């Protein structure tokens, strides 16, 4: 049984071959592309669960390729790069990546990141008390994972929706950064606060009437984030 379909995008043929062999041995179905343009063509004609995308490629680079993928798809994306600064991480996440892995990386690390990115929060139980919510023109349906803003569907990535769901079933409660990271990304996370800054900003742009003055997704300085649900 396949563990999922992965598209590896890297201009280095040796890296593509190594990653394809490693992932195939773990029961993933793997295709590869050497350019961003080629990867975008494949995504238009084939279905994948996740893209491993090199940040530094000639032609349409990884950041621009990620933006183009994200403009039309909610597919999971992990960015791969030799750079390890917070600026580079934020740039990748801002472009729409779900996670970020620095080269060189070990096989266990890469596999753990793939599992974390493909991981989905279980659906909230019926007794959680909240399955659908309407707030100032925003309609959120947790079971169907659908968000409608002023009558138009707002496409959220799987990780964005998981984060939103975690907030919604804990309304008006300040949730610490580490708790959010470990709940949504997994137990190996906890210090990647820049992930939350980017993802919360992405959610605000998609659901807040005025993202610069958030009414729902509130920052509690030095403590965490809170979903403000009017009584």
Question: Care to describe what's here?
Answer:
- The chain is α/β, with parallel strands linked by helices.
- It is 39% helix and 22% strand.
- It contains eight helices and twelve strands.
- The longest helix has 15 residues.
- The mean pLDDT is 91.
Large-scale geometry = globular
Strand order in the sheet with the most strands: 2-1-3-4-5
Secondary-structure element series: EHEHEHEHEHEEEEHEHHEE
Estimate nothing, just give the exact number of structural domains.
2
How much of the polypeptide forms β-strand, as a percent range? Answer: 15-25%
> What is the overall pLDDT average?
91
Name of the CATH first level of the largest domain? Alpha Beta
CATH superfamily annotation of the largest domain: Response regulator
Residue ranges: pLDDT <50 for 5 or more in a row? none
CATH architecture descriptor of the largest domain: 3-Layer(aba) Sandwich
């Amino acid at each position: 049984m396949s563990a999922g379909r992965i598209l590896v995008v890297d201009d280095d043929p040796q890296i593509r071959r190594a990653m394809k062999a490693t992932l195939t041995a773990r029961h993933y179905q793997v295709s590869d592309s050497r350019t961003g343009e080629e990867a975008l063509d494949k995504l238009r004609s084939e279905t994948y669960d996740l893209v491993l995308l090199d940040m530094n490629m000639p032609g349409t680079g990884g950041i621009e390729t990620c933006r183009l993928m994200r403009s039309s798809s909610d597919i999971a994306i992990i960015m791969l790069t030799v750079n390890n600064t917070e600026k580079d991480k934020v740039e990748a996440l801002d472009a729409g990546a779900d996670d970020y892995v620095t080269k060189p990386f070990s096989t266990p690390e890469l596999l753990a990141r793939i599992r974390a990115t493909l991981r989905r929060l279980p659906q909230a139980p019926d007794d959680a008390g909240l399955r659908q919510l309407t707030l100032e023109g925003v309609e959120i349906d947790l079971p169907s994972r659908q968000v409608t803003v002023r009558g138009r569907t707002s496409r959220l990535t799987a990780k964005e929706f998981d984060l939103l769901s975690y907030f919604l079933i804990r309304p008006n409660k300040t949730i610490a950064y580490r708790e959010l990271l470990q709940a949504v990304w997994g137990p190996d996370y906890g210090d990647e606060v820049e992930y939350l800054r980017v993802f919360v900003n992405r959610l605000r742009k998609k659901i807040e009437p005025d993202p610069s003055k958030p009414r729902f997704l509130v920052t509690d300085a030095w403590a965490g984030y809170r979903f403000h649900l009017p009584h």
